[in-house]
Design goal:
about 210 residues
């Protein structure tokens, strides 16, 4: 019985297919027709690479890449929006954060609970002052280097070349990459000083003589 039903179903499907095919009509070509071209992408890329290799293009690209990378290291992108201080400003930055999710160690012990307030300054001491300056300002660099030694502070540039300054002054300098520190601390002008004061960071923007 099952084989009979299967045979009947197959015949019915073939009948429908043949009927649909006989009803189909050729409507001709509407508009201009174009051949479908599918170039081999890998072959195209390989051909371009071979051309670059043969003409020395790859070596030129590598040289230019190395030059740009070195330039970025020597002179990072300046921090946007930082200008010379025209007045003295003081404020405090509280680094306290509130935990959004429970934090556990590998053994399942809770390090911090959701909603708990955590202040990093409760666990660490910032022994050196953080001095933010425009490395291209002779006045700011002279002020910072005369006031603060390597042991007393970290001088952080928001513009200029820390490598050139290290070579010329024989001391260490840093750079505020992408303005991460100045943005977090709320610094808008230089020179600026950040020092730990208990559970907060005390900040000051200093107006130097001649700035107006």
């Amino acid at each position: 019985m099952n084989r009979t039903l299967e045979s009947f179903a197959i015949v019915a499907l073939l009948s429908v297919s043949l009927t649909s095919a006989t009803r189909a009509r050729d409507h001709g070509v509407v508009g201009q027709a174009f051949p479908i071209i599918e170039p081999d992408l890998l072959a195209t890329m390989e051909a371009k690479l071979q051309h670059l290799q043969a003409t020395g293009g790859i070596d030129r690209m590598n040289t230019e890449f190395a030059r740009r990378a070195e330039a970025r290291v020597r002179r990072p992108k300046p921090v946007d929006g930082i200008t010379a201080a025209t007045e003295t400003r003081e404020w405090a930055y509280d680094p306290t954060i509130f935990i959004e999710h429970d934090v556990q160690d590998q053994k399942g012990n809770y390090i911090a609970r959701r909603g708990q307030a955590v202040n990093p300054l409760d666990f660490t001491v910032v022994r050196q002052a953080l001095i933010f300056v425009n490395g291209d300002s002779a006045a700011e660099m002279a002020w910072a280097t005369s006031q603060y030694s390597d042991l007393k502070a970290k001088i952080i540039l928001v513009n200029g070349s820390p490598i050139e300054e290290m070579t010329a002054r024989k001391r260490r300098f840093y750079f505020d990459q992408e303005g991460r520190l100045t943005g977090k601390l709320g610094i808008r002008h230089t020179p600026a000083i950040a020092v730990q004061d208990g559970r907060v960071m005390k900040l000051s923007e200093i107006k130097l003589k001649g700035n107006s």
